[in-house]
Design goal:
single chain; 408 residues; alpha/beta; Rossmann fold; 2 domains; binds adenosine monophosphate
């Protein structure tokens, strides 16, 4: 066991009302969901996982006889209506997924929507138009929040991906209504807080992505409970340069060199095993078809960039995972968007999927990587958040959760 203070085991990680604590029968229930789905140029939904993730809460509310009012943002319409960001295609997809009528309201506030809601019967579902068509949403305007709250008897937040934003539909409405967590929000918190506060050990954290600065908070917060840390992605080269080695033209954050050294030392003092890539795939640039080589990490020539971990690192990381009982992975091992630099990330995805461990994958890029690697079904939990996931892993409270009504 490594040193450090062991936080108390978490029994109720949320401490807030959840959807099951409310009697929804015949009540108007405003559910803040994250329907911020990707659309192609013809406004077709290219990935509906965010809609599917909200189905348990929506179906529960329907079954309990609630009048279900669904609200979300989509894209960045900058406070005014913009047909490119309409939620109409989402309402259509939801109708198919629920296999029942879904009413679309062309605005989220105003007399028209109040009229629609007055006519609702228990079990009916209304999808409101994009909340961000109003400036008040992102500004957390109190009047806008009040207008939204007036539509309903209860508020439920199931939009984990937006829970780190202090927007009207996240922190404003709960000032006026009893506010509870939906099933998705609850599950996210339980998994992510569970892994941070009370992981079954050995606990291995794999961190990648572009920059050390983006992940330093996570490293510091996991320090006390982690047994091994595996570093890949661009952030590895700041650590390697901080140790005094040349890294060619690889991504380096010069202002993070000292921090990188400090965190590496601190982990070592706690007895945490710290792994960096031993080899890497290098190129002059990201252009498809440009020359690539595999070299030991300590032999990156001047003018070359390390853009993926190499095969020896993938093997090393795989072996480091063998005794793990909990694995947390956040951030790709290389520029996986480009074929030539995707192998390291996909190899790690397979290793994580094959491990006999509770496996938690967090953040947009890593989520995409496990899907592209075809192993998403073998991961215990894939977080739907990006920024929200990181904030929880950093041990910070999310405004959207703090705003909910306390259980007591
Ligand atoms: P982040 O948002 O910090 O998790 O970073 C994700 C991004 O890091 C992805 O878009 C990757 O292309 C990029 N990335 C991963 N490895 C490297 C690398 N070795 N050099 C530059 N960028 C990288």
């Amino acid at each position: 066991m490594v040193g450090g203070t062991n936080p108390a085991p978490i029994k109720d990680v949320l401490g807030k009302l959840t959807v099951e604590d409310l009697d929804l029968q015949n009540k108007r229930v405003f559910i803040r969901v994250d329907f911020n789905v990707p659309l192609d140029e013809n406004l077709n939904i290219t990935d509906d996982r965010r809609i599917r993730s909200a189905l348990p809460t929506i179906n529960y509310a329907i079954d309990e006889g609630a009048k279900v009012i669904l609200a979300s943002h989509l894209g960045r319409p900058k406070g005014k209506p913009d047909p490119r960001y309409s939620l109409a295609p989402v309402a259509k997809r939801l109708k198919r997924l629920l296999n029942k009528e879904v009413i679309f309201s062309p605005d989220c506030v105003g007399p028209q929507v109040r009229n629609l809601i007055e006519k609702m019967q228990p079990g009916d579902v209304v999808v409101l138009e994009n909340l961000r068509f109003h400036e008040g949403e992102e500004k957390n305007d109190e009047v806008f929040a009040r207008n939204l709250a007036d539509l309903a008897d209860f508020y439920i937040n199931d939009a984990f991906g937006t829970a780190h934003r202090s927007h009207a539909s996240i922190v404003g409405i709960p000032k006026f209504l009893p506010a509870a967590a939906g099933f998705l929000l609850k599950k996210e918190i339980e998994y992510l807080k569970g892994v941070v506060n009370n992981p079954v050990r050995p606990f291995v954290a794999i961190l990648g992505g572009a920059k050390v600065s983006g992940k330093i908070g996570v490293l510091e917060n996991l320090e006390a409970n982690v047994d091994k840390v595996l570093i890949g992605g661009g952030m590895a080269y700041t650590f390697i340069k901080a140790m005094g080695y040349e890294v060619g033209d690889s991504l380096v954050e010069d202002n993070m060199l000292e921090t990188a050294q400090r965190i590496r030392k601190s982990l070592k003092e706690r007895g945490v095993k710290f792994y960096l890539p031993v080899d890497c795939v290098i190129a002059h640039d990201l252009e498809p078809g440009s020359e690539t080589k595999i070299v030991p990490t300590l032999e990156i020539p001047p003018g070359w960039k390390a853009l993926d971990i190499g095969p020896a690192s993938a093997k090393l990381f795989d072996e480091a995972l063998h005794n793990a009982k909990t694995i947390l992975w956040n951030g790709p091992m290389g520029v996986f968007e480009v074929d030539a630099f995707s192998r390291g990330t996909f190899a790690v995805a397979r290793s994580v999927a094959d491990a006999y461990a509770l496996t938690i994958v967090g953040g947009g890029d890593t989520d995409l990587a496990v899907h592209r690697a075809g192993v998403s079904d073998s991961i215990s939990f894939i977080s739907t958040g990006g920024g929200a996931t990181l904030q929880l892993l950093e041990g910070k409270e999310l405004p959207g959760i703090a705003a909910l009504t306390d259980k007591e």
